[in-house]
Amino acid sequence: MNETLYTLSAEGLPPLVADSFIFKGDEGNPLLAPRGVWLHRNKLIVADTGQNRVFIWNQVPQNEYTIPDVVLGQTDTTDTGRNAGHEVSGNTLQYPSGVWSDGQRLVVADAWNHRVLIWHQFPTQHGQVADVVVGQPDFTQNQPNVKGIGTPPSAQSLNWPYGVFSDGQKLWIADTGNRRVLFYEQFPTQNFALADGVIGKPGFEERDYESHEPIWPYSVRVSPQGQMMIADTQYYRTLLWNNWQTALTQPADVIVGQPGFEANGMNQFSLFPKQNTLSWTYDAFFYKNGIFVADTGNSRLLWFDEIPAQNAAFATNLIGHAHFGTGSENSNTRYGTDKQLYWPFSVCISENLLAVADTGNHRIIFFQLY
């Protein structure tokens, strides 16, 4: 068996990966189902989702195992319980997912506490308390939409927020359970901040949805040129806007993975994946003039060397399989999944270094891109 299936590009196409290595966290305290990864210059931030904590390395690790510099979400660095086994507070986490940082600030989507935590000074201490909470009135509350299941959303509430992104000034939150993305003109500095805009709904109190709106928005990305992508997991598609500002008032300009807004089939109802289909996509990332899409359910990354201009565009290449028709379960997984990507949830690129949360294999894979 090929020992590096996870580095493969489509047979007959130029390789995308020059080099790669696997990282599993702290040897005595390894990763479990990480669903968020972020690179900023030399820093690596990983949401160790299955163990309710966030790890920070001030230098990108060079070995398979490295002890983290900071552990957030637990009072003891080796603990793993939801909210550290206690009541929710300013230094606990429950199923953290999306992460973002500019090296000075840190934002964490604390999904099952129905809130987003912000550190305005980059954490330097284990278990450091967040400075601001978004989605809840204070650090001691954690119900969906503040008052519990069945409560309508508002401009201040969150329900299963899985993704966060900022351009350094503005903030976007994928408020997944409310089927929308919230927009903040300025970085929140006070608890329970009001959002300035909403993507995917006509108003802040709406939760019903139409097929042209984000159905299950899991992550949100904005390029330096102002384009926006939202990974719309439940409809097996990635939504693209040519200008993020138009997302506040109109449907996406382009759909990756589906031929139209009404289409919602896994792999477009094909038994096997194709060059222009998706299955349970959870993330995407802008790179150079194109995009990488985490085609999570097919255990691959699709590469488009230009921003797609039409629906259901064909990918230029891929990482993770030798053929576009290969899915997550294949002849190579009979003896385990560790030789390939397996349900990659999150991707981030800094310069030419691609970090992938290879969630199903409980690890991060670094790819040096050509």
Automatic annotation (TrEMBL):
The keyword Phosphoprotein does not apply. GO terms for molecular function: ubiquitin protein ligase activity; zinc ion binding. The keyword DNA-binding does not apply. GO terms for biological process: proteasome-mediated ubiquitin-dependent protein catabolic process; protein polyubiquitination. InterPro entries: 6-blade_b-propeller_TolB-like, TRIM-NHL_E3_ligases. Keywords: Plasmid. This is NHL repeat containing protein.
